[in-house]
From TrEMBL:
It is a multi-pass membrane protein. The lineage of its organism: Bacteria, Pseudomonadati, Pseudomonadota, Alphaproteobacteria, Sphingomonadales. This is Lipoprotein releasing system, transmembrane protein, LolC/E family. Keywords: Cell membrane, Lipoprotein, Membrane, Transmembrane, Transmembrane helix, Transport. It comes from Zymomonas mobilis subsp. pomaceae (strain ATCC 29192 / DSM 22645 / JCM 10191 / CCUG 17912 / NBRC 13757 / NCIMB 11200 / NRRL B-4491 / Barker I). Residues 30-244 form the MacB-like periplasmic core domain.
Length: 416
């Protein structure tokens, strides 16, 4: 929509009306503010939800892989052929053996439930999520046969532990006596403390070399799980379809969707619902633009009639009032984009400041799972929100612009 010089001049004057139209200017300002808040709220909420899902996915997949092969009885006895088959499957990046076993851990009278994870030393040190998030101690101090472990930071906080302290692991698989099975209690040296960023993992994981875990659990040379990573997490089902049939007689193959189905499905549903609920704010703002333009047309009825008698066409009137409405919507959209960018950039300091002044824990990691407020901006989604805002503004300017263009100057000026 190209405006001539005089159309641009009139549109600018109508955007900033005189004192007699102060109320119209107030309504237009409220409309602009509503568009700003609506666009900002939608971008912020969708970015936070995208970030939450992406962060949760990265953490879960980073520690659990895209899929696992687990024995029917909790153990894979003849596991090496299965491991080789998994590694040779097209689309598989890596396959590593694991042991996972729930145990109890104690220190100076405190007791917590933990999840023991046994891994090969190369796999522990090669895991980026663990290696890059050591908060205390040294990962190189973890060595096979040295009775050393690494633990999550939340578990360390619960038991009052630091790197260099000892932790006792209690295994129910102990010696059988005439009085029953005596649990095994073994003390381990804490080599390092890590923080993955997922509360449940940081509170539960105790990681040790594979051979030490087999000794503690008296598993000989067996393992519990084979963790698999593929080239594409979204197509993990198709990539591992052939492997699923080959391992069916010894274990079950589960991918990340199956293991976390309820969580990710809930996030997807909540994301869609939140989008449409917050989109209503933009629609309400567009209704405000409609009402302000209707009042502006009524207030400028005489001016429109004079312009028409001076030779202004109906198309010019249509373009002028559409430009006014689109300017309000466009400025509000731009301001909303800027506001959302600022809030997203300073999101964690804002949460910390609110928590400090209110005295409330707004982001309890034990409830929110993730330890910090995440955000990930999707440019395509932002463009869609901007298109929704501008499109709504355009649609709601059509009626008042048409009314202005339909003004009959003879009727308006008859009694002037």
């Amino acid at each position: 929509m190209i405006l001539t010089a005089y159309e641009r001049m009139i549109a600018r004057r109508y955007l900033l009306p005189g004192k007699e139209e102060a109320f119209i200017f107030l309504v237009a300002s409220i409309s602009l503010l509503a568009v700003t808040l609506g666009v900002a709220a939608l971008i912020i909420v969708m970015s936070v939800m995208n970030g939450f899902r992406a962060e949760l996915f990265d953490k879960i997949v980073g520690i659990n892989g895209h899929a696992v092969v687990q024995g029917y009885n909790g153990q894979l006895i003849n596991w090496r052929p299965i491991l080789e088959e998994a590694k040779n499957t097209p689309g598989v990046v890596s396959a590593i053996p694991l042991i996972e076993q729930p145990l109890m851990a104690s220190h100076e009278g405190r007791v917590e439930g933990v999840l023991l994870r046994g891994m090969e030393m190369g796999d522990i040190k090669g895991n980026t999520l663990i290696r890059s998030n050591i908060r205390e101690g040294n990962l190189n101090a973890l060595r096979q046969g040295s009775n050393s472990v690494i633990i999550g930071i939340r578990l360390a906080e619960q038991l009052g532990l630091h790197a260099g302290d000892d932790i006792s692991l209690i295994s129910p698989a102990g010696q059988t006596t005439p009085f029953g099975t005596v649990p095994r209690i073994v003390s381990y040296h804490i080599a390092a403390i890590f923080e993955i960023g997922v509360y449940d993992y940081d509170k539960a994981f105790v990681i040790m070399p594979m051979a030490d875990a087999q000794t503690l659990l008296m598993m000989d040379n067996t393992i519990g799980i084979i963790e698999i990573r593929t080239t594409n997490a979204d197509h993990v089902g198709q990539i591992l379809s052939s492997l699923r049939a080959r391992v069916a007689n010894v274990g079950v193959l589960q991918d990340w969707r199956t293991m976390n189905a309820s969580l990710f499905q809930a996030l997807s549903v909540e994301r869609v619902v939140m989008f449409w609920i917050l989109a209503l704010i933009i629609l309400v703002a567009a209704f405000n633009i409609l009402s302000s333009l209707i009042m502006l047309v009524r207030a400028k009825n005489r001016d429109i009639a004079i312009l028409r008698t001076m030779g202004a066409s109906r198309l010019s009137m249509l373009k002028i009032f559409m430009a006014v409405g689109l300017a309000i919507g466009g400025l509000g959209t731009l301001a909303g984009l800027i506001l959302a960018s600022i809030i997203l950039y300073f999101r964690q300091p804002l949460v910390d400041a609110i928590q400090y002044f209110s005295g409330q824990d707004l982001w309890d990691p034990s409830i929110r799972i993730i330890t910090q407020l995440p955000a990930r901006v999707d440019p395509i989604e932002v463009l869609g929100i901007m298109a929704l805002s501008l499109g709504s503004s355009f649609l709601f300017t059509l009626y008042p612009a048409w009314k202005a263009a339909s003004t009959d100057p003879v009727e308006v000026l008859r009694y002037e």
